[in-house]
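Task: sequence design from structure.
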């Protein structure tokens, strides 16, 4: 059995070929797609966060709105760029959204990806301390966020408060019990996957990672997952770790599916450079008739290792078509692979 959800990058463009022509279109359709996914029996609605781009950015209003409109589906991010985040304010925002959703948030966070602007986090008021990198800064923000999220008191109360205080040191409010155990780290390397395990964060692995050995993407990703789980056990965590992988998978069941994705059937892994000198490997897309997809996906070692599969969706094609994409996988592919 696998949890199956969708991952939306939330693109919009003022183009006659796009059904998301504005930010409002994307936000409102994201809510509608999450509702539709829950009705179809999917397990998760996840959203990418990019700053300075015509894509989804500030996630918590969206997550809270989805939480208020749904009752079962997991709601998450994949991922929030921690270089941009005020950890204290993020504890407030995520705690409030999780309470609205009844404890269903699954937050993916990370160091972040290549940006639309130069050092965009500086415009948000952050910069690495002397001798540190932006990655160091992201991890410092993360460690503080995780610590405060635990809910312990640390702030000295005022002797003359506006309202009565409970006894002892005060914590950031609202506090959502259990959210600390539902934080994921988006890892691009084996080393950062191991670091995430030591921090007690679940692993979120995307459709790319640093090329560490030259093996096919799914083989390298499976090895990353195994190293993560080993480090989790060695760290002594008593709860079960979770692992998600993302894939572009399209079951071709209609002429429209074939028109949109029929040409992706021969997709292969590719390599390139996305951030600095390190070579990255990008996983293939899958697009074929359901019986062919079943055979292909059965050979993907990383999907086999993961407990959660996030399907990247072409959100600009609209809610109805994306619900069809999800339903195709849930009905025609997942049962044959034992995922349902």
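Answer:
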């Amino acid at each position: 059995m696998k949890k199956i959800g969708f991952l939306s990058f939330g693109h919009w463009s003022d183009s006659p070929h796009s059904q998301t022509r504005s930010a409002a279109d994307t936000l409102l359709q994201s809510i509608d797609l999450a509702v539709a996914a829950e009705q179809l029996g999917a397990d998760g609605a996840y959203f990418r966060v990019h700053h300075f781009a015509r894509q989804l950015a500030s996630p918590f209003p969206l997550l809270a709105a989805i939480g208020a409109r749904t009752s079962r589906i997991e709601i998450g991010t994949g991922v929030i760029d921690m270089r941009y985040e005020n950890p204290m304010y993020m504890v407030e925002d995520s705690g409030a959204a999780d309470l609205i959703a009844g404890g269903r948030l699954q937050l993916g966070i990370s160091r972040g990806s290549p940006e639309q602007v130069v050092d965009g986090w500086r415009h948000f008021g952050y910069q690495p301390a002397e001798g540190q990198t932006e990655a160091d800064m992201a991890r410092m923000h993360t460690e503080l966020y995780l610590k405060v999220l635990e809910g312990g008191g640390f702030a000295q109360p005022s002797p003359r408060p506006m309202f009565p205080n409970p006894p002892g040191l005060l914590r950031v409010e609202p506090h959502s019990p259990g959210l600390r155990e539902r934080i994921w780290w988006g890892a691009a390397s084996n080393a950062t996957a191991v670091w995430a395990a030591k921090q007690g964060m679940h692993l979120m692995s995307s459709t790319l990672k640093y090329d560490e050995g030259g093996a096919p993407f799914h083989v390298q990703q499976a090895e990353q997952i195994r190293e993560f789980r080993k480090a989790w056990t060695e760290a002594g965590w008593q709860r079960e770790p979770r692992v998600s992988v993302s894939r572009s998978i399209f079951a071709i069941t209609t002429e429209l599916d074939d028109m949109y994705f029929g040409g992706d059937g021969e997709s292969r892994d590719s390599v390139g450079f996305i951030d600095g000198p390190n070579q990255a490997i990008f996983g293939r897309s899958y697009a074929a008739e359901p019986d062919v997809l079943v055979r292909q996906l059965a050979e993907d070692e990383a999907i086999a290792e993961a407990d959660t599969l996030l399907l990247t969706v072409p959100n600009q094609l609209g809610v109805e078509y994306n619900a069809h994409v999800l339903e195709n996988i849930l009905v025609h592919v997942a049962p044959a692979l034992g995922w349902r």
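The domain at 3-337 is CATH 3.20.20.30 (TIM Barrel).
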